[in-house]
Design goal:
heterodimer, A: alpha/beta, Rossmann fold, three-stranded antiparallel beta sheet, 13 strands, about 30% helix, B: about 625 residues, alpha/beta, Pyruvate-ferredoxin Oxidoreductase, domain 3, 4 domains, TPP_enzyme_TPP-bd (chain A), THDP-binding (chain A), thiamine pyrophosphate binding (chain A)
């Protein structure tokens, strides 16, 4: 049996959020990933973010593709509906689900193989359509389930566990998301929960296509000298552009950060991002500057983390399509079927 | 003339040979509509190679008082407007038939045949005299030959004038010039030609209340009436017009007049994989969703089809079949996707197929497919083809029962979950193999489940153990059995006299078969008929075959795909099923069917006589 439920028992004094839920209400089954996997840290951050945002777990739809990362939705939000689709095709399934019911929160979970190789096309198109979702790539640069082949995000010149040097250029998914029109783009590191949790919260609050690339070292196949996705390498080369917290419109959270330059960024749904700028001239609303910034630092061997870009006026797919506010899956015969009288008129026009 | 000239009232085939992009389509279609408005049934067909502009295209209209809507074969009257195909077009005319050509530049006698009637009309000269604009010269040339035809065939000009008025309603400036062009041609013909010729259109009352619509449009309308709210598609001939029609009808029928908001979502996806992925995502989330595609698209959708089958997610796929394999003949018709649809995806899969015979059934099955998909929680393939999809057909008016309610299938509600009803996503509660599902977001603590393509137990918990896997796939088989009682049953028509022979056919073959039966009976043979309307097959397919010595299976593919399905699924000895196959990309004709079956029956008779002597 490869499904391990967590014991029901929990401490009665666990902290509760505004809805009365504890962390346990945001957990799933026990992870079957390797001990120390960066993906488990991301799972923990998603749980923390959803807890802090007081999201109703069952109002989340969590959708993934295939791979280690795509297994993780089983490990969080056990009361949500999950969909582990096919390799690289999470974006289309999520798009369809979103069209059917605009009222749910959509978490798309993918990996670097899933999104940058087989699913690169769907990744691109879900971004350009502006589907309202949080798209998280758990990026470890290798194929873990098939024993450590390079993925398309592996840096040129990096070394595999078997000693093979990658001779292909890598794909920077955050840079691609900026290019493709995502209205929220961020990068983080699975080992930096302090940065990751607020970014996930901000992404969930964002009303549009939010993309989050999380470097998540693979302890089994990509955490060695020569890898540019190892814990040590990422810690040494991390360049954070901002530290942040989310001030939710419905449940304000006090900002508790060291003094510095703080910028409040209002999101489309009314929530506010409090960003502490590290780079003096980093502009959060400038898509093109973000692209330049990423490329410049990448060429210097630095991994830029933080919220890279937020659109001033994000739009989502439903806005573009002018769909009704009521979820399409809630419409019945009365709203959908034009009836026999209309059909008689159509018949009359076809003679 | 050797062999005489063809004379016929309300029973002939006229073909227009044009250059693609010359604006002839509306004039040619107007001809077909005019005949229909005169009460005479027509069966028009577009015949077009896969090209964009400047290459040949044909439009054929079968004028048929008897109401035979299948392709007949042969051409009685050729309007040869394409120099590129001129020789070939002339060669295709039946002896005694007619040729209308542009005689502005005289052609040598060697370009014509002695056994046909040649009608030269200086179309270019008439146009050049009347119009200076090059585009007008081209467009009005088409209306002018329509005017000539109206005189030659003794058609009522008023009918065409009315049609012109309807066509350009809202662009009223165009009505007058078009009517003028019509009369330019008509008057020229009446003054210079012997009108009418042997072929004539005489007003009749054989059209009745039937409507004139393409299968793709009717199927799209079925999707509207069936409650589809999400359409995700990728352009591919010959299915694109289905998505176009859905877009058109939704814009008209599904936009809230007060708010301007749409009660639908249509996405032109990046490819077929994404389109079926979106359909599956939407259906999983409780919306009614569909895609429209053709054979190459079905090939690309295989993996998702398997997922939807195994994970039990509803989906509707309109497959407008064309000539395969590979790119094959993109603009020609076939029925060659049966096997790939019936068993789409790797592993043991079986899917529901529906076979509409005409636009009327395309509408009915289009709407029904959403009920079936929800009821059975599985993909439903509506098997159209180019011949139905992209051609106008006369068919019975579309009907809708206003008391009809959508069958959303087994969906467990908040109230049921709250009451503590046991929810196991893959529990077979009623023994019909169909489990309950829940829509995402239904209940805070009950009813959620994880959808995946890998094995799970009855409560949707991931497992790789053999027992739950076998339990699951055997339940899927039970569900497939249950489907037999709710999908459209075959229709049987017995011959007037008892016979040992039967014929099975499906889909767009239907009108040709109706006519072929008359031809076969005229030769003294009798056949019982069964029209298959869905897969899985009803038990009556077994009994129909058992009741006859031989059953002919008529279809439009090389390998006898329906026959293979029957053999495979019904366990029938293949020797008892005689394949009658037509697969050159043109629609099957009554002549072809009657000859193939008639020859076989004749041979049987001879063999039996020999055996008896």
């Amino acid at each position: 049996m490869t499904y391990i439920a967590k014991p029901k028992f929990h401490h009665p004094a666990l902290p509760k959020n505004d809805l009365g839920y504890t962390h346990r209400d945001y957990e799933g089954t026990i992870s079957t990933l390797c001990a120390g996997c960066g993906h488990d840290s991301i799972t923990a951050s998603i749980i923390e973010a959803c807890f802090e945002l007081s999201i109703e777990p069952h109002r989340v739809a969590k959708i993934s593709g295939i791979g280690c990362s795509s297994k993780t939705p089983t490990y969080f939000l056990g009361n949500s509906h999950g969909f582990n689709s096919v390799h690289g095709r999470m974006p289309s399934v999520l798009t369809g689900a979103n069209l059917a019911n605009r009222d749910l929160i959509y978490l798309g979970v993918s990996g670097d193989g899933d999104s940058a190789s087989i699913g690169f096309g769907q990744f691109a198109h879900v971004m350009r359509r502006g589907v309202n979702m949080t798209y998280i790539v758990e990026n470890n640069g290798v194929y873990g389930l098939t024993k450590g082949q390079f993925s398309a995000t592996a840096d040129r010149g990096s070394k595999s566990k078997r000693g093979v040097i990658n001779t292909d250029n890598s794909i920077d998914l955050a840079a691609m998301a900026l290019q493709l029109g995502a209205t929220f783009v961020a990068r983080s590191f699975s080992g930096d929960k302090k940065q990751l949790v607020p970014i996930i919260k901000a992404a969930i609050e964002h009303q549009g296509a939010a993309f989050l690339d999380v470097i998540s070292p693979c302890v089994a196949f990509n955490n060695h000298a020569g890898s540019t996705k190892s814990f040590d390498y990422v810690r040494e080369h991390n360049e954070a552009v901002n530290r942040l917290d989310v001030i939710s419109a419905r449940a304000p959270i006090a900002v508790d950060y060291p003094e510095g330059t703080v910028q409040i960024v209002e999101q489309h749904d009314g929530s506010k991002l409090a960003l502490r700028k590290l780079g003096a001239d980093y502009e959060i609303h400038d898509r093109y500057a973000a692209m330049n910034f990423l490329q410049k630092h990448a060429s210097e061997g630095q991994i830029v983390t933080g919220v890279l870009y937020i659109a001033d006026e994000p739009q989502d797919l439903h806005t573009s399509l002018k769909t009704v506010q009521m979820p399409l899956n809630a419409l019945g015969e009365k709203e959908l079927c034009p009836g026999s009288a209309a059909l008689d008129r159509i018949n009359a026009g076809l003679r | 003339m050797p062999g005489g000239t063809i004379s016929s009232v309300n029973d002939f085939v006229i073909r227009f040979a044009n250059v693609n992009g010359s604006g002839s389509a509306s004039a040619n279609e107007m001809f077909a509509r005019a005949v229909m408005r005169m009460g005479v049934p027509v069966s028009p067909r577009n015949i077009f190679p896969s090209n964009i502009q400047g290459l040949p295209t044909w439009y054929e209209v079968r004028v048929t008082e008897a109401g035979h809507l299948g392709a007949r074969g042969g051409v009685d009257f050729m309007v040869a407007m394409n120099p590129q195909t001129f020789d070939k077009d002339i060669a295709g005319i039946e002896p005694g038939g007619y040729l209308l050509y542009d005689s502005t530049k005289p052609l040598p006698q060697s370009k014509f045949r002695d056994d046909i009637n040649v009608i030269g009309v200086p179309l270019t000269a008439i146009c050049n005299k009347e119009y200076t604009d090059p585009r007008q010269r081209q467009l009005f040339k088409n209306i002018i030959y329509l005017g000539v035809l109206s005189a030659l065939l003794d058609m009522d000009a008023k009918v065409i004038e009315t049609l012109i008025g309807e066509q350009y309603k809202g662009k009223d400036k165009l009505i007058g010039p078009n009517v003028h062009a019509l009369h330019l041609g008509r008057d020229w013909a009446l003054e210079n030609l012997k009108c009418p010729i042997g072929l004539r259109v005489r007003a009749s009352d054989k059209v009745g209340d039937r409507i004139f619509i393409e299968g793709n449009s009717a199927a799209a309308l079925g999707a509207v009436y069936g409650g589809a709210t999400v359409c995700a598609w990728y352009p591919i001939t010959p299915s694109s017009s289905l998505a176009d029609a859905f877009t058109r009808y939704c814009a008209k029928l599904r936009v809230d007049k007060d708010t301007g908001e749409a009660k639908y979502a249509i996405i032109q996806a990046e490819d077929e994989l994404a389109s079926i992925g979106m359909v599956i995502g939407a259906s999983w989330n409780g919306a009614r969703a569909f895609t429209a595609t053709s054979g190459p698209g079905i090939s690309l959708m295989q993996e998702f089809c398997g997922l939807a089958y195994f994970a039990e997610v509803p989906a509707v796929i309109f497959d407008v079949q064309r000539g395969g394999p590979s790119t094959g003949m993109p603009t020609r018709t076939q029925q060659s996707d049966l096997l790939i649809c019936a068993y789409a995806s790797h592993g043991d899969t079986k899917h529901i197929l529906l076979f509409p015979e005409d636009p009327h059934e395309a509408f009915e099955f289009g709407a029904l497919s959403f009920d079936l998909a929800d009821r059975l929680q599985t993909p439903i393939f509506v098997m159209l083809d180019l011949d139905i999809g992209m051609n106008h057909r006369l068919c019975a008016p579309l009907t809708w029962d206003d008391t009809r309610q959508y069958d959303r299938g087994k969906v467990m509600t908040y109230e049921e979950l709250e009451a503590g009803t046991d929810f196991g996503r893959y529990l077979d509660v009623h023994g019909d193999g169909i489990p309950y599902r829940t829509y995402p977001g239904t209940h805070p603590t009950r009813g959620s489940f994880f959808t995946r393509g890998s094995t799970r137990d009855r409560y949707a918990r991931y497992t790789e153990e053999g027992g739950p896997y076998v339990d699951n796939v055997m339940r899927l088989l039970r569900k497939f059995e249950s489907a037999k009682d709710i999908v459209p049953r075959p229709l049987i028509a017995n011959a007037e006299q008892q016979t040992k022979y039967g014929v099975i056919y499906y889909g767009s073959t239907s009108p040709a078969m109706d006519e072929a039966i008359e031809l076969i009976e005229a030769k003294g043979h009798r056949l019982d008929r069964m029209r298959i309307r869905s897969f899985p097959f009803h038990s009556s397919v077994n009994s129909f075959v058992a009741d006859h010595d031989f059953v002919y299976v008529v279809e439009q593919n090389r390998d006898g795909q329906l026959r293979s399905l029957i053999v495979n699924e019904c366990g029938i000895d293949p020797v008892r099923l005689v394949p009658i196959l037509h697969f050159d990309g043109t629609p099957i004709t009554a002549r072809f069917i009657a000859k193939a079956i008639g020859d076989h029956l004749d041979q049987l008779k001879v063999k039996r006589k020999q055996a008896a002597s």
